[in-house]
Amino acid sequence: MPNSVMHTTIEGDGQQVPAAVSAVGLRKSYGDRAVLDGIDLRIQAGSVFALLGPNGAGKTTVVKILSTLIGADGGQAQVAGHDLATDPQVVRAAIGVTGQFSAVDGLITGEENMLLMADLHHLSKTEGRRVTAELLERFDLTDAAKKPASTYSGGMKRRLDIAMTLVGSPRIIFLDEPTTGLDPRSRHTMWQIIRELVTGGVTVFLTTQYLEEADELADRIAVLNNGRIAAEGTARELKRLIPGGHVRLRFTDPTTYRSAATTLTDATHDDEALTLQILSDGSQRDLRAILDRLDTSGIEADELTVHTPDLDDVFFALTGSTTLPAPTKETAR
């Protein structure tokens, strides 16, 4: 991998601050199959970045490259301000990785798993026990600390896995599908843990197949498809890429309905249901413009409903699937 690439973010005072993770033109092939075909990334420190993609899209390959587990065939990347090619040891000291499959040893207790990680990070016995006790308490595992990890539930094992990742106080954490297989309660617990990590200044690189998870947690989302980044932005920005958003106005009085139809000439009519439908991205500005037009004519709708595409729509559209979710999400106002 060639040397030195640096993406920066500009703070309010004009100071340039290195991105937590930056990459330009990352490539990786297995045989004649290009898994990554030149991807660019820039992840701001103290944020959650979610990478979405179908199975086999290369999400785990990206994580493995950025966490120095495998090398890229081409491109440039820096993690925590250090070049992956020239400073891999320094990068490893700054990051934590929780893979798809738990690194927990079921034959020993949760506490022993933690102490083992403390030894691997060369912490003193005293420091290792202090950090272990703090993390076990933080992740609500103190009561189970002396029990074999094989007796833990899936959610407990995942919490222990992340607690082990935090022993070395990493500032950047890679979570590769951390909630796969968890029940809804355990998944929400994991979400809260991720939010707390970010509040503490940690940067989280998250891969997930749960679109709701990315929508709930991520500051920015990228969709990986056919080895390339198909789109990147906030959840709201990505949703606006997909057509189909609209506002539906319902009336109970036929006269008011007809007046509204005359005012909103760009709306589609349903005379039987007394509803009007007008294209909209669902933004506050767009809604205000529609309501202002009605207010100017002294018209008030009995019900206003905003219909917006969700991340399911975005995902399927960008990854070329022919199967789309049936209805769009609705928010009554």
From TrEMBL:
Classification of source organism: Bacteria, Bacillati, Actinomycetota, Actinomycetes, Kitasatosporales
Keyword Chloroplast listed: no
Stored NCBIfam families: drrA
UniProt key word Transport: yes
Domain annotation ABC transporter: ranges: 21-251
Record Pfam families: ABC_tran
Molecular function as annotated in GO: ATP binding
PROSITE patterns for this protein: ABC_TRANSPORTER_1, ABC_TRANSPORTER_2
Protein keywords: Antibiotic resistance, ATP-binding, Cell membrane, Membrane, Nucleotide-binding, Translocase, Transport
Organism of provenance: Streptomyces argenteolus
Membrane topology: Peripheral membrane protein
Location(s), subcellular: Cell membrane
Chief site of localization: membrane
Family: Belongs to the ABC transporter superfamily. Drug exporter-1 (DrugE1) (TC 3.A.1.105) family.
Protein name: ATP-binding cassette domain-containing protein
